[in-house]
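Just wondering, can you check both lines?
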Amino acid sequence: MVPVRAILVPMDFSSHSDAALDRAVGLAKTFGASIHLLHSYAVPLQGVMPYDFAVPDGVWDGIREAAESKLEELRQTVVSEGLEASGEVSPVIPSEAILAVAREIGADLIVMGTHGHTGLKHALLGSVAERTVRLAPCSVLTVKEAVP
C-alpha cells in the first residue's frame, strides 16, 4: 500500500466540498497525513459570457480576502482535530490550480467534492473533478454530498 502523507482538499465552499473535507480529515487521522486546503477563485468567463468585459481589481481583492478568511476558518477546524493543516487561495482556474498544487506539495491523495453536473451545466462549466481525475499526479477520491 502506498503511504498517504499529504492530502490535498480543494474547497469551493459548497456542501460537496465540506463532505470531502470531512472524509479527508478521517483519512488523515487514519494515515497520520497532513491536509492542504486549496480554494481557486478564478472563473473561466470566456465560455459563459458572450461579451468581453473586465472585472475591477477591487472586486477580485474582496473575493480573495473573503476566500482567505473562510479557508483559514476551515484550516483551524482541521487543526482542532489534531492534524497538521495548511491552505492557500489561488487566482488560477480550479482544475489547473489543483494539478499544480498537487505536484508542488507532493500530494499522495486528492479528496474533492463533486457536484455531478450534467447536460448544459457540464458543457458550460466543465467538470473540475473529471479533469482532476484524468490528469492528477496521484490518486483522487471524489466525494458526493450525502442525500438526505
Observations:
- The longest strand covers residues 34-40.
- Residues 8 and 102 are 7 Å apart (CA to CA).
- The chain has one domain: 6-143.
